[in-house]
Design goal:
heterodimer, A: mainly alpha, 7 helices, B: Immunoglobulin-like, Immunoglobulin-like, 6 domains, 51 strands, 35% helix
Amino acid sequence: MFKRQIPLMIVIILGFIFVAHSFIPAKISQDFYFEWYQPWVKAMSPFAVILGIMSLVMVHGTKIKRKAPNWPYSLVIFAGLIATAAFGFIWGRQAGTPYMWMFENVQMPLGATMFSLLAFYIASAAYKAFRARSPEATVLLIAAVIVMLGRIPLGAAITHWIPDSTTWILNVPNLAAKRGIALGVGLGMVATSLKIILGIERTYLGGGE
Amino acid sequence: MMRRLHLPLLFIMSMLACVVFLNAQENIVQNLLVEDVPDDDGSGLILSWAPLPKEERIIEYRVYRGLSPDSLFFIGNIPVNAEVGVAAEKMYFYDKDYSRFLGINSPGRLKQERQQPEGSPLYREIPRDLNITGPMLAHFRILGVIPVDEFYHHSTKIVYPAEAPADTTMEQEDDEVWAGLKIRQLSMYKKLKSNHPYWYTVVAVNESRRFYPHAEPAMGIPRDNAPELIGDQFYAAFVDGAEKDWLQFEWEYPLVQADVAYFSVYVMSKDDLAAFEAFTTYQSDYAAFMMEALNYRELVVAEIENVIAVLRDGGAVAQSTIESLEGFIFTTRMTPGSRMADAREELLAEIAEAGPADEPLVRPLLERIKYSATAEMPLLMTERIDAGEAIAETDFAPRLTIVEPEAIENPANVIYREQRMLAPLPPNSCVVELDERSHIIDTDWDVDIALDTAAMENYCFIFSLYDGGGAETFSNVKFMYADGPQKNILVESDLPALPDNFQIIDSPNDQGDYNSVMWGRPVVHLTKSEFLDDDHTRLRVNYDIVTNELYTIKNVYFDVYDNFAGEGEPIFTSDEFFQDSKIIVNLPEGTDYKSTPLTFVMRFRTDNDEELGENYAFVQNLEWNTESRSMAPTELIFQGENVNDFSYFIYNQAMMDPQYTLVKKTQGSQRNLDDSISYVENVFKGIGRYDADEQVVLVSTTIDVLRDHEYEVDLRTDIYHSLRDEYSADIDEYTAELVELRTTHTEQLAVFRAAAALADGELGDLARHLVSAEEALLADPENKEAKEQLTLAWIALNNAGDIDGQGELYGADGQIARLQDNLLEAQRQLENPVMQRSFEFGSNKSRMRYLMAERHKVKRTFRYYMVKTDGEARFNRSAVYVNPGGEEWLYPVSNWFDTDKIVMLIATAIFAFMVFFMIRKARKGHDLYLRPIAGIQEIDNAIGRATEMGRPILFVPGLSGIGDVATLAGLAILGKVAKKAAEYDTRILVPCRDYIVLPIAQSIVREAHYEAGRPDTYDKNSVFFITTSQFAFVAGVNGIMIREKTATNFYMGMFYAESLIMTETGTVTGAIQISGTDAVTQIPFFITTCDYTLIGEELYAAAAYLAREPKLLGTLKAQDYFKFLVLTFIIAGTILSSLHVTFLINTFPER
């Protein structure tokens, strides 16, 4: 019983406190947030890292143990994990240390490679989106062509209507749609928060009732 | 096989050899120089050195400081980009002002710097170990920043019992009591000490983090310099007032101002200009003389170091050399019996015993001499040279004879002087009043100067800054002009009019940390403009409104004229009922805007129109600018005055402080500012002592509590006990001393009275006037006016001449005045109501809690005044602001409700009510219609598809943490999906990016399996952590999709740039994909690449849709109704504001 009730009580009480905090500017309210809540969050975060590492060890340990397909890659993961941690602990994280060398020469290029793939995927997605197979898709195609032309000097060279239309499309229909979504999202957030604070929504505790 | 490896091995070996060779190069920093920072208070040194070539790929230069070249600690670094290196010929590092010395982040113990050979003098930062750091404290000016709680309640009381007196007739001294604080309880900041040598070195570090050997340590000595020159930045004005005359002065403070102690204004006749120049020449000569004397001392110190070096290397030094060095510090002026003389005898004995070649014994003695020379000698040196004694008369041989320049008196007279009492500077302007006789009187500084106000042009004024070290710097001489552009002989009406409504209120809706300062009426001004068409007939003009809380702007009216001559018909008018900071001006065809400016006349309608009046209009032109080829705004004119010709200076004074300081200088078009009143978080204490056994630094136990502004007395307490007994004892002592002094004074007055009776002429008159002033004060010792009269009488008499008994009587008066001040201060400490209340507390903790609450309140209580000025002494100063309640001291209080959020609170309450209502309705069995959402309806089918294909489901709960509501919504959907998957016995894979989301997701999936009655199929490793790195996570997820060939992919939560990479990969693998996010920027990507997408709020609704529980459906329905309500307000607001009715849109906060 307490396994559910105590966390639920904590969430409900703290939920109401945080609601109150957003309406109360008094010093005690600010101190609660900045002097109590934030330091606690900072203090707890490093412990949560252990959970992540444990999960990694369990998943990949099992793979190695069972000689699952591609299990040698799990060894690479362990090697990377241990080497990065060891380099950081032994030589620190300043510029020029092995840790930073690995970060700059392994992590960053690999991340950049993944990110650069996005350019090709955007082209592919644009192709799919702009195929004029329906009236809606045709409108989308025309709007996209205007916006794209309006963003480059060629558009203005053809006629000033193109950049003007670009601005209008972005500032009126596009912004209206974005604000409509934002309105719904805002209400959805408030509703979800309310459900959590009132104990209606309990999935985050690991299950329904 | 091995043969094939030869070539690669050879390549690797040669590369390694190159690396070793390159690393073996010793790149030592060259030309390290340590110099004094000019114009400062003697606490700054500049290090300079030649940077190493770019090819060395240096990434940082590390700087080390020590008290000797033997031990140097890391104090800071200059990072360098290895790619570009340093282009400049020299690099600089400033060791000045208060900078971090020691704190909780300092290393616990002494650590040698990395990669240093045995015996290297380099260490990492100064350690927290007080056995090592403690002795250094005396060599710096240390400021401890102590959190209030640590000081008030968690310091350790350290008592050093006083030694019993050797003689029973001697008085027993009090025990020494200190507050001890561990290093972790405070932060320590240091300033260098003047005339103290410090050693520095620099180490270059290359990109492989190789520490090159350090540069040869260089020594520098910070010198206390004269304040920085302020040149022409001083202005004077004489104001011929209706009732009285006065002088006004204004100045700009220099950039370096740390030790400026006094600000003075001098007056002199123009005839004295040559004499004043001679005086300033003497001043520079004297400064040069002092510098030469100090340099001479350094020569001797260098000689001592040479001797030490010889001894260190095993050489011998003649006894006479050591004694001659010793003689440098102890002069014949040291009288027998003085502590210095005793120390000298002791030292001589030790040197004699040690012998010149006995290095281990002599060296510490020489170190002591060196330290004494650097720390003590300047005063002794000056004293001896001032006295003009022959150096040969002393007990050591002369090395240098320095002659002090002959003193010249300053011909200018002080008319105003103010002492700087706080770190922030006092106001940069002053008013000096003339009395009805045209005399300037200031009893604090013995000023009594008569001016001929009819001939002010014959006078000139000088401003000076006087520093703590005794050096004075003068501004350029300011002359007086009755007319012309520099006119500064003014009448009262020449001064700028102060704005109305100068008010200060406690800022609303804050935690009590702001006061709002407001003045004047609203201002509108043009900011920029732009033509919107090629014909240049449509001009967009941006404007800005500056107002304060006293006025709510309803309309702004713009009348646009071409060829404006104060009247005529405008070519365009605009009524800005909703102020969006821009108007579109339609210009009639043929408007010649390039040659004739467009004139804008701008008026307001506010909630307080009567006060503004009809003539309240601003005029500003838009002129064609040929360079920017646009219409640019010109000066803003209000009632003939350029608004920005004047500035406003707002000053405040804390109830705890003795002086006003500047809050902010604002432009003439500003109308308000927020003054930040921070809470008291720290106590600042000087630190010089420590206790190595207890590992604590020692700070004074007393602290200021209040300030008695009537008597200008700081009221203090001790954190361990009240000071009532001490002050009572002081009162008894001062009273007894006063009785004794008054007896002597009566006798001296009798002698003087007799001499005064005999004196002739003006001197006699002044002496007799003084006697009557003395008698008036004797009759009533507490009479302030009588005290002032006596002071004035003394000024006049001391200026006039000298008669018998004058010096003795003057000295006695001074002593009595000082004792009375001391007595008064002690009495105020006991009589103040707050202090008296504090004496009643039984426990010290309660007493301190009460006193500190009072202290913090007083520290945050302020009073204000403002100055409107043209920056050149033409200013007007307001009276100190008094609120409608009659209070001038204002204290900002912490607010309990943010009234700006009242609409939000009401909306939340309405929404909560709707939720309750709809849940209740749903529970009663009402059928609540929910519009179908394709993405949600397809979830079951998607799971079924994976089951049919026998492949796993992938569920990504977003990339943000548990604090994001979208993640919570995603997890809620995960619960439903996992339950369905468990029922169908389909494997679900949940990769997590956040390690706090991980255990929650694991728990949700486990519970789902239990609920489905399939706990056996739950695999903990199916919910796993990948990495926190964004793109590494994507790579991991994509790998899973490809390897596991997932049939269905869910993306529910918050996503960023990686969304498209994941979903495109999913498309390639042929999975059915359902996504849901509230990230507006990612929704288009999801719509394009996924089969179904939950847009924004649908993500939050999905769990309720799937669960079909009344409670959850109720909230969904409430959301829909609330959206309808919002939409109603949007439409109503649009219609109303289109009809110039703006109350509705103004009701809602902008953010």
